[in-house]
Fold:
Amino acid sequence: MLRGSPYLAAAITHLTANSSAINAELGETVVTEIPAFTDSGNPDTLPGLARHGPQHTAEIIRLLSGESVGNLRFVREHAQQRAEQHFPLEATLHAYRCGHKVFSRWLRESVLTGVASPEDAQQVIVAVADFAIEYTDAISTVFAGEYLSQIRLLTEVAGDRRAELLSILLDGYDESDGRVANILRSAGYLDRRQSFCVVLAQPVDPAEMLNPSRARRLAESMDNALKHTTVRRLIDIHDNKVTVVLSDIRRASGWTKPGTALANRFTSDLTTLGNAVLIGVSNDVPSTSQIPIAYREAKLALEFASVSKRVVLVSDVSMTGLMLHLLRDDMQRLLPSWTEGFFQADDKQHGALTATIRAYADSNMNLIKAADRLSLHPNTIYARLEKISELTGLNAKNYHDLNELHLVANSRSH
Structure:
């Protein structure tokens, strides 16, 4: 209806003459009503807004002048820029709603400057309202579609880069490979003053990692748990585990003390991930070439994690535990000949014999303290030790014999 209106030429003239005022009002309204524009730390946010507002004014005048609807390329380009800046989508859509109010009022005033009768005025107001709504809907739809497409593209590219970088760091690399060196240098991983630590996480039920959305949620939860720290983190899904390479400056210079080990800075933060998540943490290593070692340590620590101890630092695993774990298969084949009869007797007593050996060892061979640990009478502990000696031919009161008994008893739990 606006195109056929005899008042349109006067409206276009009025809009053109007041375009500077319209643009100023647009910018002021958006900045006043939407804090995201002033809260943004990106220096191009406000200049981008100042460029984009006048583009809409010019487009509206162009459309009212009878030119055909284009593909709104300037809206698409703005959407791409905002996506690259990670500026909130809702903030721009809110800005378009603010713009709708400003343009509606200016359009109405411009068209009404030449209206003679109240009947014509009513028709013009309806037509102006329809035009403003259609325009706002069109630019909002185009912006949202282009923004989300760009975000998906950026996410895929970032994911590919993250996966490549993580693979290089975890699998090791040839230091003479210039391409790899450039990747690590551009990512800031070749500063010799840095320390590195690897963290692995998976659900108690590892099969949940086969669900991409659940795996990604766990990665996001890990990222959120560490966000408040100053430690740099590289997080992705690798080998069906949430894998994190943490890095930070080890010391400011050769004259300053090294900082606290990375693993000790955030252990309490990792416990916030919930009871269904198991986590293994490596020792610190001083260079990227040793990150594969840290990766193996984190995998080892993860194998010791359980619902009773969900976050395990490899540095906290006992030497006995490590030895039993690493020699697990060979040890089962090489256990002493008396082991089978001992374990059969232990099973009949519901684990009482192995529990007694552990309690006696943990009490530094003090029979009374071992009895107290197990809430038993000392005579019961004495009788059990005699039974163990009868079954194995070893005397638990002898240090070396107790050490062998303790290793065999613990071999069942690893």
About this structure: The chain has three domains: 8-152, 193-317, 328-411. The radius of gyration is 35 Å. The beta strands are 194-203, 232-238, 241-249, 277-281, 311-313.
